[in-house]
């Protein structure tokens, strides 16, 4: 979904049928023997045919204290199977998962796992039209991803939300934080190093709305967008891999 550009404005600086057939001899014009008594009629029940079980593929959102082996056990899979199915989400270390990551479970088993995430009611948008990752998510060492972008490249709201912060911030130079409610969770989307500020704190924004222009403010080595996703809020929540989160929510990265 292409982002919608905001109208230019002064930048802010700082969802058994049973068929009964009656055959009448009179209607057919012939003489036939009387029908059998009702209690002698045995209904024909179609034989049930067995078919191979179809795997129940669901999604599971990692919570604090989870580990891959326990999730695998609950979903009826081996740890290796679960990791193979979710390598793009988990990354290179199967022992390192983070709250908020969304895993596909049941791919190798017909045993469902509970809880599963509900269907998403709203579309989501990539923060940039071109998603070229130059620095990957590394947990506490790097709590987001860096995306290549020339100065002034427009960036978009990933989901409907409200601007929580839009101001100068240490390290970021300028940052914009948009808070959304998704699947019953508070999710904050963080944009850093912008050229200037476009939106105001408290402003409601719609998915795909033009909310930032990339830049080189803050601690940077070149123009790019630093982008983070926090489950539970930027202050007090947990960071998750933005690329994995976007893929899990239908956005091509």
Q: Rounded to an integer, what's the Rg over CA atoms?
A: 28 Å
Average pLDDT score: 79
- Number of helices in the DSSP assignment: 5
Helix-strand makeup class: alpha+beta
Q: What is the second-level CATH architecture of the domain at 133-248?
A: Distorted Sandwich
Euclidean distance between termini CA atoms: 13 Å
CATH overall fold name of the domain at 133-248: Glucose Permease (Domain IIA)
- Tell me the CATH superfamily of the domain at 133-248: Glucose Permease (Domain IIA)
What are the secondary-structure elements, in order, as H or E? HEHHHEEEEEEEEEEEEH
pLDDT under 50 segments (min length 5)?
15-31, 36-42, 110-122
Strand proportion:
25-35%
Biggest sheet features = 8 strands, antiparallel
- Name the helicity range: 10-25%
Number of strand elements: 13
Overall 3D geometry?
Answer: elongated
- Any idea of the CATH class of the domain at 133-248? Mainly Beta
Strand and helix layout:
Blueprint: H1 25-28, E1 58-61, H2 68-75, H3 79-85, H4 87-90, E2 102-105, E3 133-135, E4 145-148, E5 154-156, E6 161-169, E7 173-182, E8 185-192, E9 194-197, E10 204-205, E11 210-214, E12 224-231, E13 238-240, H5 242-248
Antiparallel strand pairs: 1-2, 3-4, 4-12, 5-11, 6-7, 6-10, 7-8, 8-12, 9-11, 12-13
Helix pairs in contact: 2-3
Structural account:
Helix content is 12%, strand content 26%. Strand 12 (224-231) and strand 13 (238-240) form a beta hairpin. The chain is elongated and about 55 Å long. Among the domains are: 58-105, LysM domain (Membrane-bound Lytic Murein Transglycosylase D, Chain A, Roll), CATH 3.10.350; 133-248, Glucose Permease (Domain IIA) (Distorted Sandwich). The strands form three sheets. Strands 3, 4, 6, 7, 8, 10, 12 and 13 form an eight-stranded antiparallel sheet that branches. It starts with 24 loop residues before the first helix and ends in a 5-residue tail after the last helix. The chain has 253 residues and is of the alpha+beta class.
């Amino acid at each position: 979904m292409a982002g919608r550009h905001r109208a230019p404005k002064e930048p802010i600086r700082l969802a058994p049928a049973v068929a009964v057939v009656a055959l009448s001899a009179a209607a057919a014009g012939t003489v036939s023997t009387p029908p059998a008594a009702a209690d002698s009629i045995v209904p024909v029940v179609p034989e049930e045919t067995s078919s191979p079980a179809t795997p129940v593929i669901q999604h599971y959102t990692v919570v604090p204290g989870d580990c891959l082996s326990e999730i695998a056990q609950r979903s009826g899979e081996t740890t290796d199977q679960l990791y193979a199915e979710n390598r793009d989400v988990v990354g290179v270390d199967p022992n390192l998962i983070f709250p908020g990551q969304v895993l596909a479970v049941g791919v190798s088993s017909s045993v469902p796992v509970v809880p599963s995430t509900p269907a998403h009611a709203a579309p989501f948008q990539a923060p940039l039209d071109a998603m070229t990752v130059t620095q990957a998510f590394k947990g506490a060492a790097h709590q987001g991803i860096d995306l290549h972008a020339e100065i002034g490249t427009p960036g978009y709201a990933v989901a409907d939300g409200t601007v929580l912060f839009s101001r100068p911030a240490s390290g970021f130079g300028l940052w914009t934080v948009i808070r959304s409610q998704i699947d019953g969770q508070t999710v904050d989307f963080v944009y850093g190093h912008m050229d200037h500020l476009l939106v105001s704190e408290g402003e409601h924004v719609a998915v795909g709305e033009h909310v930032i222009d990339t830049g080189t403010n803050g601690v940077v080595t070149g123009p790019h967008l630093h982008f983070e996703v926090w489950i539970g809020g930027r202050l007090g929540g947990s960071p998750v891999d933005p690329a994995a989160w976007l893929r899990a929510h239908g956005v091509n990265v």
